[in-house]
Design goal:
Length: 264
């Protein structure tokens, strides 16, 4: 039915032209039949002229109905078919608005990898410390100059990590901190639709690429240990650690990155 309506709408001008030609021919016949009827002498000639007039009027009515149907199909039905959206049709990217195309883009997320086993800390025995005997201590000289007490030196405070989103946060160690041995990455890995989190590492300060998977977990972490890192397996220098929190749809907020100096 839709194909027929489209054909009628496409060829409507030609249909109108054909109907106009037929109408002109019928006008010529009407003039000729009325002239013959006025000049007819016998009743048979008048009856034939009457039948011709009736046929001309019948053709005229058929032309009017045909032209009316053509107009209705090309103007009303064709517009309704063009604006109707059939069920099950999928809009192509050319038919979608630009803002909807942007919202449909999904950020690619690498597949979760098996978290590496957490190294177990080994307890080191502490050697006993000898207790000094107060009776064997030398007697202080009251005339000796007092030894100046050195002023306490404030420990350097590391800058916070580069964490644009509070749901992915590395709170310790701070940016630029010097670390060695076994350290714990402290922070928060949380999301409204939490799926898992992972820790990556890359050489250099504020690295933008070249990250390698280090560890992760399938449960949210709130101000706790994200991963334990044995820095003895890293070369001395600046390294960047990255925290990514992935939701159930495979998307993730901006990652948190912190650069530290490893000195073993």
């Amino acid at each position: 039915m839709e194909v027929f309506i489209e054909l009628v709408a496409t060829y409507a001008p030609y249909i109108y032209a054909a109907c106009g030609l037929v109408a002109l021919y019928q006008l010529y016949r009407l003039w000729q039949v009325r002239s013959d009827r006025r000049q007819a002498v016998f009743s048979l000639e008048r009856e034939r002229a009457s039948r011709d007039l009736a046929g001309i009027f019948t053709v005229a009515m058929v032309l009017l109905l045909f032209m009316g149907g053509t107009y209705f199909s090309s103007q009303v039905l064709a517009t309704a078919v063009a604006t109707e959206t059939p069920e099950g049709d999928v809009a192509t990217p050319e038919e979608l608005p630009d803002d909807l195309i942007v919202n449909l883009i999904i950020t690619p997320t690498p597949l979760p990898m098996t978290p590496s086993p957490t190294p177990t800390a080994t307890e080191t025995p502490i050697a006993p410390t000898a207790t000094p005997d107060p009776l064997n201590q030398p007697t202080p000289d009251p005339n000796a100059p007092a030894t100046p007490t050195p002023a306490p030196v404030a420990a350097p405070v590391a800058a916070p990590a580069n964490c644009p989103d509070a749901r992915a946060l590395i709170s310790s160690p701070g940016a630029g901190a010097s670390v060695s041995g076994s350290i714990a990455l402290q922070g928060t890995a949380n999301h409204e639709s939490f799926s898992y989190y992972k820790i990556n590492f890359a050489p250099g300060a504020n690295a933008e690429g070249g990250y390698t998977y280090l560890g992760g977990g399938n449960s949210p972490v709130f101000n706790g240990t994200l991963a334990n890192v044995d820095t003895s397996s890293f070369a001395n220098g600046t390294w960047t650690f990255e925290l990514i929190v992935v939701d159930n749809t495979g998307n993730y907020p901006p990652p948190c990155r912190v650069s530290v100096n490893i000195q073993n």
